[in-house]
Amino acid sequence: HSGFSASACFVSPFWNICTFFSLLFQNVPYGRYASSVYGFPVNVKFAWFIQEMPSLFLPLALVLWTSSAKTSLLPNQLLIAMFLCHYFQRTLIYPFLIRGGKPTPFASFALAFVFCIYNGYMQIRYLSHYAEYPAYWVSHPCFIAGSCLWLVGWLMNIHSDHILRNLRKPGETGYKIPRGGMFQYVSGANFLGEITEWAGFALAAHSIHSSAFAIFTTVVLTSRAMAHHKWYINKFEDYPKSRKALIPFVI
């Protein structure tokens, strides 16, 4: 237990710090920011399916094929279910709904794949074998508030992705201004949803591992939301002036 937590305490902050400083100079190179500098292009549907897969199937294998009394405890079960619910949608549904989409550079795809192996294992190994919560934890304000935040973020993320997918009618090309849902307030509604989701998960799980993941997600997606906002303003003269990048009415 101590060895597992110690390694996670070192690797996760190190990954977060490296990510933060790299994003000061270069946005994550996929989607509209893709570049041939980062390797040959990978089909976007294939890339999303394969890179997210370890965060679904590795945790499932840990839960189903390893024995641990922790998986019989309700708080652990609910937290594992939250994690798997996200990655079920991200792996088996989201990639196959993508319409068009620019190819992903191989370097971005490979890094995402490695991260999903590490993070999927770290989160669920901890929850299935080591995490200990008091019997009342599911009724604790932190768990209730965290679970509600997770659900709101998950639904916001899915709804925002739906809006983005349906911006263009069949046969249309080019970029359009997203409208509706949280896009009325921010340019990065899908990113805000995912940040909210993992912040809620971290609050409910109350662990170094979940907190590190929430921080990593926030660092990466805040950078992307700011870049998207700047891109939209430069691209569209009629872009809504009141719309912020990530946090409604703030930034």
Automatic annotation (TrEMBL):
Record-listed E.C. numbers: 1.3.1.22
Pfam family, one: Steroid_dh
Topology class, membrane: Multi-pass membrane protein
PROSITE patterns the UniProt entry points to: S5A_REDUCTASE (PS50244)
GO molecular function list: 3-oxo-5-alpha-steroid 4-dehydrogenase (NADP+) activity
Enzyme type, top EC level: oxidoreductase
Gene Ontology cellular component list: endoplasmic reticulum membrane
InterPro entries named in the record: 3-oxo-5-alpha-steroid_4-DH (IPR016636), 3-oxo-5_a-steroid_4-DH_C (IPR001104), SRD5A/TECR (IPR039357)
TM helices/strands, residue ranges: 7-26, 46-66, 78-98, 104-121, 133-156
Compartment list: Endoplasmic reticulum membrane; Microsome membrane
Domain 3-oxo-5-alpha-steroid 4-dehydrogenase C-terminal positions: 103-250
Claim: Zinc is one of the keywords in the record: no
Listed name of the protein: 3-oxo-5-alpha-steroid 4-dehydrogenase
